[in-house]
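hey so u asked for the seq, here:
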Amino acid sequence: MKNLFILFGFIGFVLTLGTSADAQTRISFDKGAFSKTLTVTVPAKSEKQYSVLVKKNQVINVTVSGDINVSKNIEFPAISLNLVNGEDGVDNWQDGEGYLSVLTGTDGHFIFSVSNSSNRPRTFKMRVSVTDDHDDYMGGID
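ran it, structure tokens below
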């Protein structure tokens, strides 16, 4: 009986790991479209992850607008964007207040996080676009 309990505990642990590895939401575009605008709600003190499939040398731009600041008086953003799986020396990326821009160095799924540092949930618009035009990259290329 003890071995059975340990086996079920191990299976549950493995299933939990498998679920968290695929926890990001995949973004796909309508046929012929190169961008998509989503309404996103991120719980207080939390983050969500998204992924987008791209080819090498494409540009991913993510921008957020709406309820993203700490308050109406303080312009500091409560919502931040970060590239999760970028590879230094291969991919180029730049993030700032309300945007993330990536020039991809490989084919594959690029994962980015949207974090909420405030004490309340935030609902806002997020626009994700993918283009082949290097001029769309918001960072400088060395």
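The two ends are 63 Å apart (CA to CA). Residues 80 and 126 are 11 Å apart (CA to CA).
lmk if thats what u needed
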